[in-house]
Design a protein that fits this description.
This protein is of the alpha/beta class. It has a single domain, classed as pyruvate-formate lyase- activating enzyme (Alpha-Beta Horseshoe), CATH 3.80.30. The chain is globular and about 50 Å long. The two termini are 35 Å apart. The mean pLDDT is 97.
Length: 247
């Protein structure tokens, strides 16, 4: 893993998903095999493989302190092309520093992560009505998780984190995307622990080699996604959990 401390010129960027996005890091230690964010290598000039480099934006907090004064208030997505709670965040606390500024100004925030490190900041996040957390969980099968996301926290650990966030009143979403084998078992696991579930299929081909290596080609097909959607939606309706399917 190559870690660099870098200075950047801006941190609060306009986004097509939410009003703004803040990415405290360039690159991600999780290195998930299917991650769409690997496209950034075309623009950053990194030669390392995805998951083998992280640039730490060490001036992000001070930069945000200035930039926020020049921007119209809007919802901030943390983050779009990295996990804001990847392991390096425990040391650098860039995400936490940015959150402190945004929360002080009462800006609405959406945090998206696979990491249980977010629990470090529960006391910071709770009691803020404009904060929501999206926890990405792509399967209920930890064996499948180890194939596609070997450097991420276990499914059990993520569900425990989800439960903790939900129990202290933080609005939580579960992002089941991309749909991986075993995802249908998640609904029973997360019921009562989340406010909303978002579902999407695999939209990129970065992990095609993984499917082939482990004999999972069937799970790349439209038939698989269609069948999974039917099963999961049926279960969601039975449990009365609000949801959105993106395909």
């Amino acid at each position: 893993m190559i870690v660099r401390e870098v200075y950047v010129k801006n941190i609060l960027s306009e986004s097509k998903v939410f009003n703004y996005t803040v990415n405290p890091y360039i690159g991600c230690e999780h290195g998930c095999t299917y991650c769409y964010a690997r496209f950034i290598r075309r623009f950053t000039g990194h030669r390392e493989k995805w998951g083998e480099f992280v640039d730490v934006k060490i001036n992000a907090v001070s930069l945000l302190q200035h930039e926020i004064n020049r921007k119209k208030i809007g919802r901030v997505w943390i983050s779009g092309v990295c996990d804001p709670y990847q392991p390096l965040e425990e040391k650098y606390k860039i995400t936490r520093g940015c959150l402190e500024i945004l929360l002080e100004r009462k800006w609405p925030i959406t945090i998206q992560t696979k990491s249980t490190l977010i629990l470090r900041d529960v006391e910071l996040l709770q009691n803020h009505e404009n904060v929501e957390v999206i926890l990405t969980i792509t399967t209920a099968n930890d064996g499948i998780r180890r194939i596609f996301e070997p450097k991420t926290p276990s499914i059990k650990e993520r569900i425990k984190a989800l439960d903790k966030l939900n129990s202290v009143g933080i609005k939580t979403y579960v992002m089941i995307a991309p749909l991986l084998p075993g995802a249908e078992g998640l609904i029973e696991e997360v019921k009562g622990k989340t406010n909303y579930i978002i579902i999407d299929k695999m939209n990129y081909h970065y992990a095609d080699w993984v499917y082939r290596k482990y004999g999972l080609e069937y799970a790349m097909s439209w038939e698989f996604f269609k069948e999974m959607k039917i099963k999961i939606v049926s279960s969601l309706k039975k449990q009365g959990i609000p949801y959105e399917v993106l395909f």
